[in-house]
Write a structure and sequence with these properties.
Chain lengths: 191, 191
DNA sequence: CAGGATGTCTAGCGTTGCTAGGGTGGAGTG
DNA sequence: CACTCCACCCTAGCAACGCTAGACATCCTG
């Protein structure tokens, strides 16, 4: 492997990331339906086929954006949990952080948890960021709770439902705080 | 209004419903991405523009299917609730019925609560079937519970999250029974 | 029976995701 | 230094998409 091919590999990796961030920027500016391979190619200043030399197709690009987003979410939840004054408050802090994330980055959230992606959840080859994010929910529950994972699944499901139903206007956009409060009180004591 | 124009109106209404059921059948057989205006037109044995004389566009057709589905869901939930041996058991019965519906008719469920539609939820002009379906959740809670609607929103959100996350493989497909059990126990006593 | 309205179809526009095939320029070799 | 070759990228195009304009036929009305 000569220095030249190494340089090319670096440039290629650079362009790979450029495509991902361009897709994300475009989606956050105009929504995922505006992210077409043509517009994306124009943004990165290459022709369409270049995209296909990096990704298997549009879904793979969305998946890459989603994975980045999940990493950010995991870090976001982690910060919230660690900033909480104690384990009892961590549950609420993490839940609020989750809903805030979904509200402030709705398009990113959509890629992560609504659109079809290639990401393998809950399996042997689940990428670390996914594990980390889910792990933050698990960490909200007592270590001696033998059903922590189950609690985490249901908690996550409830938050996801609240986020998506309010985002799509199927439940009123306001009232999130009350829903969060109710959810917490129903779970907190049996944490 | 002559008898002739009445007959035409009947035929037109008949064809209207034919389009809706054809769209639903096609979607349930091959998924919503297979429901194209061309294939749909072929199924109903009319040309594409005919679809547009009945509906404003593809979204409107999906919305019509969704509305039918919500009517069926409301009836399904209602039957489950009334068949329960008492109000205390109604909660579990309705929740199980909801998850069963989502599992057995995933494509219909997708149109109802995932895909973008024209349906107005939670507003003044909300269609009766939507109110009826949501009302079934409200009816699971004690009449003297002043926050019944809030409870219903959170319960629905949790069920919706469980249904969609498991459907898309983001939580394991099995374990639904345990999730349902946990959800019920967290809510039942403060019903 | 002519005239008009109603209804439906053919044809086509602009856009989509994706790909085949040609051309160019730099890397390696004699 | 010249030549070959290969890796890279672009132009051009395919089939399919949602949707629509305009021509054609069919039926009711005066």
């Amino acid at each position: 492997m000569s220095a030249i091919s190494e340089r090319r590999e670096r440039e290629r990796a650079r362009r790979h990331q450029l495509i991902i961030t361009a897709a994300r920027d475009l989606a956050e500016a105009e929504g995922w339906e505006a992210v077409t391979t043509r517009r994306l190619a124009e943004r990165v200043e290459y022709s369409q086929p270049v995209l296909y030399s990096h990704f298997d197709g549009k879904d793979a690009i969305v998946s890459a954006v989603a994975l980045d987003g999940i990493s950010e979410l995991a870090a976001h939840l982690r910060r919230a949990r660690q900033a909480a004054p104690g384990p009892a408050h961590a549950l609420r802090a993490v839940c609020r952080a989750y809903l805030d994330f979904a509200t402030e980055r709705p398009v990113l959230y959509e890629a992560m948890f609504v659109l079809p992606t290639n990401l393998k959840f809950a399996s042997a080859e689940t990428p670390p960021p996914l594990r980390a994010a889910f792990g933050e929910f698990v960490s909200c529950f007592r270590p001696d709770n033998e059903r922590r994972e189950l609690f985490a699944e249901v908690l996550w499901s409830a938050l996801h439902g609240i986020a998506t139903l309010s985002r799509s206007g199927r439940i009123p956009p306001d009232g999130q705080e009350e829903r969060l409060g109710l959810l917490i009180t129903q779970i907190a004591d049996t944490r």
